[in-house]
Design a protein that fits this description.
Helix content is 35%, strand content 16%.
């Protein structure tokens, strides 16, 4: 899954949606279709101005409203058409959806602890993280393959889906995906094409990536 046609210099920007009311309430959204707040729209507008400077070649997005509205801000600046795909939706988490963090701990404490230990858990009876990667990562790769040399794809999705997709594209075992950490609203991560596959260049960024000088080159 992490193989690429090396040397083409492509880049994938994985951008989390803006703020929602459920984010503020620490309420588990999952696949529930929640809109952006006014602050979330403003976050998307600001981030879109920055990401437009990367001159993206394509935009794909989850079809949930919070991601679609975030993507629309970048499309408005760049003139690109958005390709919406339900495979980029957030993890379906069944009975956890709509609950606050405290409610999840109170009702599903053992399940939550097992998930944090890295066990394969269907949170709330929903999807495994590997199943999220199974549906999302191929869509991202399919669109990345269509890029021109040195092209940039912007993927507008959700925190959990982005983390699992990055883990899969980097070839990491699923146990280690949690080590990537979360993304703040309207922040993004950048994968670049290296000689041995995709490399993580930026994570949870809110500013444009700077060249890495004198690292291991």
């Amino acid at each position: 899954m992490n193989g690429t046609k090396g040397g083409r210099g492509r880049r994938i920007v994985l951008w989390r949606h803006g703020q929602t009311s459920w984010n503020l309430e620490r309420r588990f959204q999952g696949s529930t279709d929640i809109e952006l707040t006014d602050a979330g729209v403003a976050q998307a507008r600001r981030a879109a101005r920055l990401l437009a400077a990367l001159k993206p070649d394509a935009i794909i997005a989850s079809d949930l409203r919070r991601a679609a509205a975030t993507a629309a801000e970048l499309a408005a600046i760049t003139g690109l058409r958005i390709s919406h795909d339900s495979a980029l939706r957030e993890t379906y988490a069944g009975e956890w959806q709509g609950l606050t963090h405290e409610e999840i701990l109170a009702r599903y404490g053992e399940q939550y602890a097992a998930w944090k230990r890295g066990e394969a858990v269907r949170r709330g009876g929903g999807e495994l993280e590997t199943e999220v990667a199974d549906r999302a990562a191929p869509v991202v790769l399919e669109h990345a393959e269509k890029l021109p040399d040195d092209g940039t794809l912007v993927v507008v999705s959700h925190g959990g889906t982005i983390r699992t997709t990055i883990g899969r594209l980097l070839g990491l075992e699923s146990y280690h995906w949690e080590g990537l950490g979360g993304l703040s609203n309207c922040c993004w991560s950048v994968l670049g094409e290296g000689a041995r596959g995709w490399r993580l260049l930026e994570h949870n960024a809110g500013t444009l990536p700077e060249p890495v000088l004198g690292d291991d080159d």
